[in-house]
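TICKET: design request
STATUS: open
ATTACHED STRUCTURE:
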């Protein structure tokens, strides 16, 4: 499989927090889960690789091209959803979509209609009439509607009920079968147990692991550190908590 995203030695520093160096590769036709507790640096990483915040170091390549100098062309091929986003709150969704489609050369009205129907999105409604979970669905539907080859998703299942989460995972698996790549952060590790091929785990801004799901689980099961992602993550984070309060 070919790499659609390669991140090497990414660094971003804020007062009181440093991310990195973080390195990982996302391949075509695969799903990578991005895990770590709140404040670990997941959102900072995702925003950095999209140039929504400016990294202090490292290199970012999409489809073999550097992000710098090729950003517009690359973002035509990448879909991003960052949880619930407030669009123009009083504008009908149909009008928002009419404006949004103009930004994407590969916008697919058929895909928009299919996913909007699957998520029960009424285009006559306005964003302020939607629940938080429905806003997440709207954001995801827009990301899925321009034939993106790579989806970068920050907590995409946040606020969704269990049935909607299961439907979304089925969509992810179908997109993977078609050759798309997906990178998504989540705290719901059971979702990753069902669909992820690879795991990248960061803790307090530092990379713990980035490897296949099979290798990650096998290594920790053999050492008795946990049977699944949730148990393994709890062990790592509990150790840190106990150290803080040790005598």
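STATUS: resolved
RESOLUTION: sequence designed for all positions
ATTACHED SEQUENCE:
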């Amino acid at each position: 499989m070919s790499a659609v995203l390669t991140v090497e030695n990414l660094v971003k520093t804020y007062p009181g927090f440093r991310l990195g160096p973080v390195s990982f590769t996302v391949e075509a036709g695969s799903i990578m889960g991005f895990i770590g507790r709140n404040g670990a640096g997941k959102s900072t990483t995702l925003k950095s690789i999209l140039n929504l915040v400016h990294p202090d170091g490292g290199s970012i390549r999409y489809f073999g091209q550097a992000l710098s100098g090729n950003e517009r062309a690359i973002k035509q091929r990448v879909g991003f959803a960052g949880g619930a986003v407030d669009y123009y709150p009083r504008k009908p969704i149909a009008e928002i979509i009419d404006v949004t489609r103009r930004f994407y050369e590969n916008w697919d009205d058929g895909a928009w209609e299919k996913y909007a129907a699957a998520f029960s999105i009424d285009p006559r409604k306005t964003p302020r009439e939607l629940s938080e979970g429905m806003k997440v669905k709207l954001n995801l539907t827009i990301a899925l509607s321009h034939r993106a080859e790579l989806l970068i998703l920050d907590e995409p299942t946040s606020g969704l009920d269990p049935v909607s989460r299961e439907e979304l995972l089925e969509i992810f698996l179908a997109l993977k079968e078609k050759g798309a790549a997906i990178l998504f952060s989540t705290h719901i590790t059971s979702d990753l147990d069902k669909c992820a091929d690879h795991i990248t785990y960061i803790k307090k801004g530092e990379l713990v692991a980035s490897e296949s799901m099979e290798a990650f689980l096998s290594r920790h099961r053999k050492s008795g550190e946990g049977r699944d992602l949730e148990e393994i993550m709890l062990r790592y984070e509990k150790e840190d908590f106990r150290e803080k309060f040790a005598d």
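CLOSING REMARK: The CA atoms of residues 10 and 58 lie 4 Å apart. The chain has a mean pLDDT of 88.
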